[in-house]
Amino acid sequence: MRINRREFIQISGAAAAGLALSSCAGKGGMFSPARDQAKMLQIQDAKETTTICPYCAVGCGAIVHTAKTGDKRAINIEGDPGHVINRGTLCSKGAALRQLSENSERITQPLYRAPYAKEWKKVSWDWALTEIAKRVKTTRNATFEARNAKGQVVNRTMGIASVGSAALDNEECWTYQALMRAIGVVYIEHQARI
Asked: Which of 17, 68, 98, 156 lies at 20 to 30 Å from 24 by C-alpha?
């Protein structure tokens, strides 16, 4: 095969560019140490807390890094490599968990829309929680059955249903279930089964 000088330079340049790009590809390539060092500097003095991803019923583990000083906001969220379910990986929703707390569009105050109203209005937490408690109590009292048609003691309410969350841990689930059963709720479901 005969090549001229110009073709030799073109082939050599393409080969050099290919080698340079291949060293950058893969597991971080030649930039990997710098990227790892920058990440370590960001979370070096951060408080590390484990949590569960709230998006689906899988229950992947995540590690949240928060600043120890200043505004103590979340500075990094990553998969928990010690978690039995996801072993450090996160889907695209889990990888974006930081947006739940660090989002300027996040609603941080309760909103209420009265029946037939077209607009939502801001209300206080005290008003919202009191109103929810009143409505639950009113519905429970209106639909509570102490005995069924056969005269058997049932102590239940058929007017309230509950859908649990995959984001709750075992202790929270137990507390939530105890509350639902204490007020007589029969229709108790979980997000993972829907």
From this structure: 98
